[in-house]
Amino acid sequence: MTPKVSIILANYNEEKYIAEAIESVINQTYRNWELIIVDDASTDRSQEIINSYKDSRIKTIFCKKNNHVAYASNLGIDMAIGEYIAKIDSDDVWEAEKLEKQVLFMEEHTEYGVCFSKVNIIDEESEEANTKFSDIFELFNKVKNRSQEEWIKYFLKNGNCLCNASAVIRKAALQCVGGHYNLAFVGAEDYELWMRLVIKFPIYVMNERLVRYRWEEAVGKISGFSLGKIYATFNLQTMVKSKMFDYMSDEEFEKFFRNEFVNNAADTKEEIECEKAAFMLRCTGKDVNFLGLMQYERLLEQPGILEVLQEKQGFSLPEFYKELRVRNFGIPGELEAKDVTIEELQRVVQRKEKEINQREQQKLILEKNIEDRDNKIKELEAIIEDYENSTSWKLTKPLRKIGTIVKK
To answer: Domain named Glycosyltransferase 2-like: which ranges (predicted)?
Structure first.
């Protein structure tokens, strides 16, 4: 039987967690799947663990050279024969009914290109950590369903809020937008793919937590923070957002956003390009809003465009120059990076303080229990002492001695 779902698991040196990820796939209530494990040249015991599974639905690729997650995932996609593609990271865990619920939804709603779910956060010890990492929990769980145009604006302004390990992608939709992750965007390869997909297809988020998403504070993980990751986040978001109009035709741009045009009557190629610049300036968010300025810069190089901007958009060169003075081109310097690092460290401190307070509360409870026990012992000792001093106890003492002799 041809598997309906192809599950891609890319792994690199996750010997601590990969078995838990594989087991969560094997334990799915939905059974018609293949699991393609791509080991990206691990140097730990990962390959040994992978080879210990003898399920015929599991296929393996062992890379000789490490090329990171996007490349490894693409190898798995190339091997996939299912109607749907699902992605699980080697340190995450699926709930048992995940595939069953999402495949049923996709079968009943053929207009959607991707189905996501909400998540629970787990820590290094696989313990629930929704409160401990509340910012990450809220990022993935406050998400709501939106129209395609609302999603495009959200992605441009805010970035990603969808969990890669929760996605079930219609393979035909994936092939329609290139069929692979973009190798240039590791760290945001999923975000860039969602941008491509949502331009062509509506997407849906199930209001159930079907994934346990692992968040680690350790530097060097996809989760966690470091100065390099702060820079990478900015660079990747800028690169992804700058490509939006490469993915979107003029017809799609008009379909989604004509009601927001500065010039409602925009019709010519030049006028549509002017609207794209205005849209990009409005919608890319404070961190990368210079992308709109760059759109205008490219337009102003073209003969005759200034007149179109002035006539159709009320564009003003002096106002444009003011935008250059008040908007930050966003390249994060050391101070900005340190501010972000400090904020994250403060959150870590707050979490640790909360843990300490919880332990203090537990300590107080234990001390109270010990105090109660000691008081109970004292009460019992007092009762015994009163009983031993009682007349009846003294009168029966000879009988107790006789009983002891008889037993001997």
So the answer is: 6-166
**Are the CB atoms for 244 and 149 separated by under 8 Å?**
no
Q: Which residue type is seen at 87?
A: K
Q: How many domains does the chain have?
A: 3
pLDDT in tens, 140-185: 999 999 999 999 999 988 889 999 999 999 999 999 999 999 999 9
Look-up: residue for tokens 């002035």? 310
- Amino acid in position 56: S
CA pair distance 84, 5, nearest whole angstrom: 5
Q: How far is CA 23 from the centre of its chain?
A: 21
Q: What is the sign, positive or negative, of the torsion defined by CA atoms of 394, 398, 401, 406?
A: negative
Q: Which two tokens stand for residue 173?
A: 């939709």
The token pair that represents 235 in the structure block: 């660079």
- CATH number reported for the structural domain that contains residue 118 in this entry: 3.90.550.10
What is the enclosing helix (H) or strand (E) of 85? Answer: strand 84-87
Torsion over CA of 48, 16, 24 and 72, rounded to 10 degrees?
-70
For CA atoms 16, 19, 22, 28, give the dihedral sign: negative
| Alpha-carbon torsion, ordered 67, 73, 76, 77, to 10 deg | -130
The amino acid at 327: R
Its pTM stands at 0.78
334 within a domain of the structure (yes/no) = no
Amino acid identity at 219:
V
Same structural domain for residues 236 and 264?
no
State whether 63 and 103 are in the same domain: yes
State whether 66 and 135 are in the same domain.
yes
Which residue has tokens 């006028």?
271
